[in-house]
Write a structure and sequence with these properties.
mainly alpha
Length: 477
């Protein structure tokens, strides 16, 4: 069997890969680098309430999640390179606008623009990557680098946000993205090529409206559920509306001649189970990462900068997993790699329940490194599973499906946060606030670990059978 790590990408291949990975890196960086700066943004621009300030994050997240399927299909119809360049230009421009914003309204509008641009960048970058590198070891290696840098973007954003905000100003968090966007744009214009011509077809407008509206309502409902309560009227209206819109979307797709998301893709076991495993790893890792931040700041009383540095081991482990993913997937298969990744992630997350009230740096770094390593391995294997064996004309929409768990995984953040709050409230009458919070965190860590380990058992088995079934069908044909 060919060793994926020995397949050369070539000088131009590396330039293409760095450009496409750089684009996904800055979109990941964008979500995390601004989070640490929120308190200073609130003071500087005069946000009235914490709820209003939270829209600095939410305004970017919602359009990205809602519009990704639309842009994924548009890239298949109109040309991926063209849409990718447009997305990078828009993201770069809105980053500059966000850095220069003079008031809350202007900043939130610029952040929404960044979110729309990120929705165009994500699926087109992945589709261009799967087109530039043939299916097999080269593509798996490229996806490994991409997965590592995407996760590293979140981690570096947490660290860099604290450093930049403390030493300069929150505005530099956006201006740095502007500078990085210019570099990505240079690469997009000079080395990235579109290997596939656009094709004439009608866009599924009803499907686009229903999918975008349904995903917007779903992510909004998940976001507000953790803040306002799962039984609050805004949350219930959003989640019911999401169910109605997405249900209508499936009905429309079954009847449309050129559907936005062909149902034959959603019926493929590799696609639906790959997305499910992506949702498990993103939901539990994203939730546990937030809980670690709470642990470091509210229990151990670290500063924002110390907290950012506390995630350094997770970032290093993400890079290691990205470099090893291709070899593991080539040797054992994507299903086995997903099972291994989720197992390591689950064990690391479960061990976080041992974190003490006075802190333990060795345990913190070890458990977060295990979680980060397993998460990136599972992500790369899931994306490989989703995008493999598909026609070239479907790679754009496949790219959007592969990245949807990143945003729908917010349900894990909201769910684990609710568990922490409920457990801490139950413990509060008999102990201190810090110990009650720690008890809630321990409970949530155990649950997150159990979900990841369950995903490892189920996903690995199902995907192995799916792959075996596909091979038998090919041989029979």
């Amino acid at each position: 069997m060919t060793d994926a790590t020995q397949i050369p990408l070539g000088a131009r291949g590396w330039l293409v890969l760095l450009t496409l990975c750089g684009a996904t890196f800055i979109t990941g960086l964008d979500y995390s680098i601004i989070t640490v700066a929120l308190p200073e943004i609130g003071r500087d621009l005069g946000f009235a309430t914490p709820a209003a300030l939270q829209w600095v994050v939410t305004a970017c997240l919602l359009p990205t999640a809602a519009l990704m399927p639309l842009f994924g299909r548009l890239s298949d119809l109109t040309g991926r390179r063209r849409l990718f360049i447009a997305g990078v230009i828009a993201f770069t421009g809105f980053s500059l606008a966000a850095g220069l914003a003079a008031g809350p309204g202007l900043l939130i509008a610029a952040r929404a623009g960044q979110g729309i641009a990120a929705a165009a960048i994500g699926p087109t970058a992945l589709a261009l990557m799967t087109s530039a590198f043939p299916e097999g070891p080269q593509r798996t290696r490229a996806l490994g680098v991409n997965g590592a840098l995407l996760s590293l973007g979140f981690v570096i954003g947490t660290i860099g946000g604290g450093v930049v905000t403390s030493g300069l100003s929150w505005r530099w968090t956006m201006l740095i993205l502007f500078g990085m966007g210019l570099l990505v744009l240079l690469g997009a214009l000079t080395v990235v090529r579109d290997t596939r011509r656009s094709r004439s077809a009608r866009l599924d407008v009803p499907g686009a409206i229903l999918a975008s509206g349904g995903l917007f309502a779903l992510v909004y409902g998940i976001t507000t559920g953790g803040e306002k309560g799962w039984l609050s009227l805004p949350t219930l209206i959003s989640l019911v509306g999401a169910a109605v819109l997405l249900g209508g979307f499936l009905v429309v797709e079954a009847r449309h001649r050129e559907p936005l998301v062909p149902l034959r893709l959603l019926r493929r076991p590799t696609v639906k189970w790959g997305m499910t495993m992506g949702l498990v790893t993103f939901g539990m890792c994203g939730g546990a990462t937030l809980l670690l931040s709470i642990y470091m700041q509210q229990v151990v009383d670290w500063t924002a900068l110390q907290t950012g540095l506390g995630f350094a081991a997770e970032g290093v482990a993400a890079l290691v997993a990205g470099t090893m993913a291709a070899r593991l997937i080539s040797a054992r298969g994507a299903g086995a790699a997903i099972a291994l990744g989720l197992t390591v992630q689950g064990l690391g997350t479960t061990a976080m329940a041992l974190l003490p009230v006075d802190g333990n740096l060795t345990l913190l770094l070890g458990t977060s490194a295990a979680m980060g390593f397993g998460h990136v391995l599972a992500v790369v294997a899931a994306v490989t599973t989703i995008t493999s064996g598909l026609d070239e004309s479907d790679q754009g929409i496949a790219g959007s499906l592969a990245q949807m768990p990143t945003f729908i995984g917010a349900i894990g953040v909201a769910g684990l946060s609710a568990i922490v709050a409920a457990r801490a409230e139950a413990l509060a009458p008999t102990t201190t606030q810090v110990l009650a919070t720690l008890g809630g965190l321990h409970t949530a860590f155990l649950l997150a670990g159990a979900v990841a380990l369950s995903g490892a058992m189920v996903g690995g088995t199902v995907l192995h059978r799916s792959r075996a079934g596909e091979r038998e069908d090919v041989l029979a044909a």
